[in-house]
Recover the amino acids of this structure.
């Protein structure tokens, strides 16, 4: 899926991801390729995503961290919208 993580100041990440784990208001949840459309509010926490070998094609800021095969970025809250295999995270 196409993943974009943006803040009012900058774009944190833009690229292809195979899975994304998000800090929803009611707990962590994960979306995968071809997931049903969803809109969710997000709380403060860590967005974790797997690029599945697509690192060379990704644009990311220095705020994105790598741990093993997973990548992550901390957010203070925001909104996520997934539609047509495109996930946009508007984060604080």
């Amino acid at each position: 899926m196409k993943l974009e993580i943006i803040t009012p100041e900058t774009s944190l990440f833009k690229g292809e991801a195979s899975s994304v784990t998000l800090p929803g208001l009611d707990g962590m949840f994960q979306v995968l390729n071809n997931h049903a459309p969803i809109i969710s509010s997000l709380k403060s926490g860590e967005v974790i995503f797997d690029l599945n070998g697509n690192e060379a094609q990704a644009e990311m800021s220095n705020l994105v961290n790598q741990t093993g095969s997973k990548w992550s970025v901390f957010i203070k809250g925001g909104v996520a919208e997934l539609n047509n295999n495109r996930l946009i995270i508007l984060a604080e």
